[in-house]
Specification:
alpha+beta, Aminopeptidase, 5 helices
Length: 182
């Protein structure tokens, strides 16, 4: 398996495919689990995928084809975030770890100013939380009722991050949550 990341031309040749991908798949752990065509087109026009602070990349596998999409956000800061979306047919296939490792490698290899790379998910997205841990990310926050849920009560948002030095050394630096001693 070889994962490659390819930048999108969201306002040109990739626009229709991006709209199709985001509207034909459901993303149950995202704030908007099933965006419609107008939502996606508006986000494209607003620069959500290609502004100074964001970039969208296709996730491809040499044997399986196009797996999904990653949107890198806050690229104008030293600690960007990502939004990962695998196509419905590629979930639960053991692809999360190699995909997240490829994304992490891409960010740290091509963006020398980045010192910390973060992702967030809902507390009930256990599969993604396990992927974070297997890829060397450390849980840094648990925001109670921090994730709106369409048609339901809010869930906790859980934040994970990896430090450049940990990526380089293959280590993890734990967070000391009980630092006040009581």
């Amino acid at each position: 398996m070889t994962i490659t990341l390819t930048p999108l031309d969201v306002r040109g040749q990739d626009r229709a495919e991006l709209v199709a991908f985001l509207t034909r798949n459901r993303f149950p752990f995202h704030v908007n689990p099933h965006p419609d065509v107008q939502d996606v087109q508006a986000r494209i026009d607003q620069g959500a995928y290609d502004s100074d602070g964001s970039a969208a990349l296709w996730i491809d596998d040499d044997s399986r084809g196009r797996l999904g999409l990653v949107i890198l956000e806050d690229l104008d800061e030293d600690a960007p975030l990502f939004d990962l979306r695998l196509g419905t047919s590629f979930r639960r296939k053991g692809l999360g770890v190699p995909v997240l490792k490829a994304i992490t490698d891409h960010v740290f290899s091509t963006m020398p100013e980045v010192q910390r790379f973060e992702g967030q998910t809902r507390e009930d997205n256990v599969a993604m939380r396990q992927v974070f841990v297997r890829c060397g990310y450390v849980k840094e926050a648990h925001y109670r009722d921090g994730w709106p849920v369409e048609g339901g009560a809010p869930r906790a948002s859980v934040a994970y991050a990896i430090l450049r030095r940990d990526w380089v050394l293959g280590t993890t630096t734990p967070v000391q949550f009980d630092d006040l001693g009581y």
